[in-house]
Amino acid sequence: MYKEVKTKKEYRDLMEDMLTETGSLIVRFPQIGIYKSIFDQLQDIKKTIIVEQKELDEDEMDERYNLGGMISKNFNSETELYSRKLEDLFGAASEYYKLPTE
Question: Which of 37-46, 60-69, 73-82 has maximum average pLDDT?
Fold first, then answer.
């Protein structure tokens, strides 16, 4: 059962899960280019937000990444778990520095 992230640890764990899942989708469906774009953006979010601990507000996130638009145009968050997880990662990225550690 999936739940939205509430801590930095949960965010990091979800990031790793989504990188793994998206990597698997790239291997299974190499002809679907959106997965490579999602993977690249997730890697950059991980590097910027988690590793370098830069604080980006929602506007900066939207300027830097098109992940939010890709999710809404290509996936159904009402029924697709993959989409809900991506939305949570993208949405919580600008709040990561405020999340409790555990």
Answer: 37-46
